[in-house]
Amino acid sequence: MVKSAESEIWLARRASAGHAADERAVLELTGPVMLRVIKRVLGAQADELEDVLQEASLGLLSSLRGFRGECTLRHYAGRIAARHAIRARRRREREREKVVALREWAEARAHGGAASTRVHEQREDERLFRELLSKLPEEQAEALVLRVVLGHSLPEIAEAVGAPTNTVRSRIRLARERLRQMLVRRGVGT
Question: What is the pLDDT of residue 118?
Answer without folding.
Answer: 58
